[in-house]
């Protein structure tokens, strides 16, 4: 009997936690059995080597395998526009990740979301440009559903963990993702507020879209560092002010991640990931070029009939 395809549900029954760290989060604490894994992917090189290890689970359960990547590289060497999001997400898939927690620094667009507060967004507005948004193309077309871009089950666990850590939490919100690296103009900031957005960042997209295509559950832990420049009573955003709050937020985010890991179930049957490609592939399989099949094997190979 042949082994199941590595992207198939049968091969992904064990839950594996991924964590991608943004500004201020360059490692996670509590990992044991640690190794550094440098990968190449069909989409290029990820931001840095992955840190792979295990984190303890509560209730006497076996530890959970965990994979961490600093999205800006160690030492924060990559602009948001320089991040190879496709390579990063593909690398997580290569390492077996089924559920991905994204930690990101954001600016607040609401009076009630103060610096240091935690937002767990459920919606995004994409204002990026020039970033590769999909794994697909080159002869294979897919259209995944993104109406609810954040995985509800993983998002709920983030909320419970943040609450248990005593964070000031905002349970829902819309995150605008801008290109950067400059912060918004005041006119842009007020426009986003008029659209109903709550926070603004530079990295959650196309990360969330690619995770959906890779059939990885995705949730964002957005850590507010400042009021965006709409806030007339505040000075304009300064790097110094942001860095000061980043340091305070980093310790909180590490505690939240450890608490999430401790409560995770053993299997993906207990906390499913989105099987988003099941009805998303449009192309006649007979027309998919061999090279495209090879490049996309870990993404969609389980749904393509053998040649």
UniProtKB/TrEMBL annotation:
Gene3D superfamilies from the UniProt entry: Nucleoside phosphorylase domain
Associated pathway: Amino-acid biosynthesis; L-methionine biosynthesis via salvage pathway; S-methyl-5-thio-alpha-D-ribose 1-phosphate from S-methyl-5'-thioadenosine (phosphorylase route): step 1/1
Entry keyword Zinc: no
Site, Important for substrate specificity: residue positions: 184, 239
Residues reported to bind substrate: 202, 226-228
Function in brief: Catalyzes the reversible phosphorylation of S-methyl-5'-thioadenosine (MTA) to adenine and 5-methylthioribose-1-phosphate. Involved in the breakdown of MTA, a major by-product of polyamine biosynthesis. Responsible for the first step in the methionine salvage pathway after MTA has been generated from S-adenosylmethionine. Has broad substrate specificity with 6-aminopurine nucleosides as preferred substrates.
Protein name (record): S-methyl-5'-thioadenosine phosphorylase
Organism: Nannocystis pusilla
Species lineage: Bacteria, Pseudomonadati, Myxococcota, Polyangia, Nannocystales
Gene coding for it: mtnP
């Amino acid at each position: 009997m042949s082994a199941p395809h590595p992207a198939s549900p049968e091969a992904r029954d064990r839950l594996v936690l991924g964590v991608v760290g943004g500004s201020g989060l360059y490692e996670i604490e509590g990992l044991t059995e640690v190794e550094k894994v440098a990968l190449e992917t069909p989409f290029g090189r990820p931001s840095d080597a992955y840190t792979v290890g295990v984190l303890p689970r509560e209730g006497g359960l076996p530890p959970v395998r965990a994979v961490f990547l600093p999205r800006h590289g160690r030492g924060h060497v990559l602009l948001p526009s320089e991040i190879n999001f496709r390579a990063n997400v593909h690398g997580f898939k290569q390492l077996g990740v089924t559920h991905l927690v994204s930690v990101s620094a954001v600016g607040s667009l609401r009076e009630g979301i103060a610096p240091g507060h935690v937002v767990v967004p459920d919606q995004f507005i994409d204002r990026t440009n020039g970033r590769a948004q999909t794994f697909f193309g080159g002869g294979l077309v897919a259209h995944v559903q993104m109406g609810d871009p954040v995985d509800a089950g993983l998002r709920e666990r983030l909320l419970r963990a943040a609450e248990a850590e005593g964070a000031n939490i905002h349970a829902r919100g819309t995150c605008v993702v801008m290109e950067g690296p400059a912060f918004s103009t005041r006119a842009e900031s007020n426009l986003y507020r008029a659209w109903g957005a709550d926070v603004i960042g530079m990295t959650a997209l196309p990360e969330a879209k690619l995770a959906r295509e890779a059939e990885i559950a995705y949730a964002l832990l957005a850590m507010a560092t400042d009021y965006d420049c709409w806030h007339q009573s505040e000075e304009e955003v300064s790097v110094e002010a942001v860095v000061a709050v980043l340091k305070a937020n980093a310790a909180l985010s590490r505690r939240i991640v450890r608490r999430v890991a401790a409560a995770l179930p053993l299997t993906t049957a207990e906390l499913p990931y989105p099987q988003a490609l099941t009805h998303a592939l449009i192309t006649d399989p007979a027309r998919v070029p061999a090279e495209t099949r090879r490049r996309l094997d870990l993404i969609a190979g389980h749904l393509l009939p053998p040649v």
